[in-house]
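USER:
Try writing one entry.

ASSISTANT:
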Amino acid sequence: MTPAATPAYRRLSVEERRSQLLDAALSLFAHRAPEEVSLDDVAEAAGVSRPLVYRYFPGGKLQLYEAALRSAAEELRQCFDEPREGSPLDRLSRALDRYLAFVDGHDTGFSALLQGGSVVETSRTTAIVDGVRRSAAEHIYRHLDIDDPGPRLRMTVRMWITAVEAASLIWLDEEKQPPAEELRRWLVDQFVAVLTVTARRDAQTEGLLGALAEDGRD
């Protein structure tokens, strides 16, 4: 009987190896604060040696953390990249569903991963996180068909995004209660509520609120 052939070893490309290390790092950062994760931990999780991790990230853990943060930031940006189907609030609801699924998947490491408070936080990591917030805001303006948001509307949207982040962190502290679907509905209702307050002092937001009401009646 001929012995079964041993699968040939395939050497990973540079991009494949880098992706493997980032996936291992993200998995660790998802459940532990960055300062609690060592390069040895990343090497073990990826099944490689510590020198190999240094070969791809010669800047050490800080460089690896920033790269992992950029990867997570890109995933979060995509949460708000919703096709223009349905009403603006329907699109926002679907985007929030994906956002909360991301928070759920990263569990208790969400705060350390994207909200700062870490000994490895730098101006670059802060800029990466702020870039996610700005990208989310730009997507929301497009869903609302607003090409040139005024200062009051911009402030309202950015404040709401901050509230979503805060609610997500509290949700994790509260053992993910209420259920994600209920939290998402509440966040959408809150968005309409803050727009309603702003509309009392801003004609642009008042017009937007009227358009949303018309969409809701269709």
Notes: The chain has ten helices and no strands. The first helix runs from residue 14 to 29. Residues 18 and 56 are 7 Å apart (CA to CA).
